[in-house]
Amino acid sequence: MGLELRQQLKLSQQLVMTPQLQQAIKLLQLSRLELLETVQQELLENPFLEETEIETEIREKEELTESQAEEELVRTADWENYLGEFSSTSKQASARDSEVPEEGLSFEARLASKPSLDGHMSWQMRLSNFSESEIAIGEIIIGNLDHNGYLQATNEEIMSMVDASDEEIEAVILRLQRLDPVGVAARTPQECLLVQMDVLGLDDPILFSLVKDHLEDLEKNRYKPLARKFKISMEDLKSYLDLMQTLDPMPGTNFSSTEPHYVSPDVFVYKYGDEFVIILNEDGMPRLQMNSFYMDTMRDVADKEKDYFQEKMRSAAWLMKSLYQRQRTLYKVVDSIVRFQRGFFEEGVTKLRPLILKEVAEDIEMHESTVSRITTSKYVSTPHGIFELKFFFNSALDLNDGSQVGSESVKALIKKMIANEDTKRPLSDEKIGEILKDELDVNIARRTVAKYRSAMGIASSSKRKQYF
Predict the structure, then answer these.
(1) pTM of the prediction?
(2) N or C: which end of the chain has fewer CB within 10 A?
């Protein structure tokens, strides 16, 4: 059999995602903050893109009008009669002099940073009579504290990081535990609470035993066996519990460095009469346009530079088109959700109906993956609060009449029932399921109630029970 080379034509089809298409898909799933960062980066890199100056001109006119009004006020006002005895020039000058140094500072420089637990402990340690060797040990200990203030390193591990004996390390730990906040650098919750009791002078033997040996029993509400063991009444036990609640089992949380994250909604939905109005949040979003200078320059550039210019021009045009398509898709999806979930927007979470991505995709005649991407990390402000768009898509539970109800509605009902229950006789998961079946005709199993309750972070009935 001979080998030979030959040419052959073959016709085939394949799906290719161009870089422009990949960019458009990426823009769909970006959150609002990520989108702003992406647009700002493109403004820096692409000379053909620029931000329109319409809003800037309006602001300049407003500022000019305000400055003219101030000049007129200064010219016509009778300040001497208005200020009276407070019209001293020296006082004004001194006040002005005190403002000048601050004006030269940035806004961030005028703000005091929130103290950290490490810095707070180090500051106290250096103000106390710690020796140089004790400060070296203390820095290692402070560096191994978690956000709750607990020591996460053993004495042996600390010894490997600093030249000190076990007794010296333990002595520094004991001193640090009595600084502010009291109980920091403890190894266990029991040790943390016992240190606080020692500092406060709480030396009751029953209280000491409850903290040292019976925290788990208290957590699981085993009150009656404890009352029998210590031969005290339930009222006396309650007084001990009230005293324990004055202690802080997590002394480091007040110095936590975590900051709250605020959500800026992508869409606002308002009720106007009998209809709902949808407004996209354009606040802070740059309004893009093509740079006229570079557009005019393209005709005069050399051939070797024209390819670069054309590429950047196409990239700018495609970005503007993709941003418009993203906002248009977001509006259509929210409009469809409002029509499907009108009961929610009218009355609240209890009227949330079952909804899947496919229904919205068919309604707006787009692919299901497009709906999934545009609802990722997007938030909508409604008359009942701010919700993620994914919140409106939930599974269904069957009713006895053959209809269905959304799982989020059932969760809201379960949460409401538990909030209104008798704390001394809390509702069990089985009892909640029976109430839903009898009163609301919802077919739901006990394990489903337990799953929904756990998803909402609600403890079981045995842990919710209160004996006092």
Answers:
(1) 0.64
(2) N
